[in-house]
Amino acid sequence: MLPLLQLGALPSLPALLVGLLAIAVVLLVGRLVMKVAWRLVIIAIIAVAVLWLLGMLGFQVI
């Protein structure tokens, strides 16, 4: 009970709602950014694998 008292009073409900909405927006934007980031990582893995295979076959690619 003591740690709860040290936190102070809870903020007003509109402030709490605005805070939760801000967190929701950050999570939504984060999901979109991570979706793009995963695609970029997969494309990079494929590109490096192709370059490596071409190098193993004796082609000078870089």
Give a structural overview.
Keywords: Membrane, Transmembrane, Transmembrane helix. The chain crosses the membrane at residues 12-33, 40-59. With 62 residues, this protein is mostly helical. Helix content is 79%, strand content 0%. It has helices at 2-6, 13-56. The longest helix is centred in the middle third of the chain and has 44 residues, at 13-56. The chain is rod-shaped. The mean pLDDT is 86.
As a percent range, the share of helical residues equals over 70%
Order of helices and strands: HH
Instruction: Catalogue the unreliable spans.
Output: none
Strand content: under 5%
Largest sheet: none
Mean pLDDT: 86
- Number of DSSP helices? 2
Radius of gyration: 24 Å
- What is the subunit arrangement here? single chain
Features of this protein?
62 residues; mainly alpha; 2 helices; 79% helix; DUF8029; transmembrane; membrane
How is the topology of this model organized?
Blueprint: H1 2-6, H2 13-56
Question: Brief overview, please?
Answer:
By secondary structure, the protein is mainly α. The protein is built from two helices and no strands.
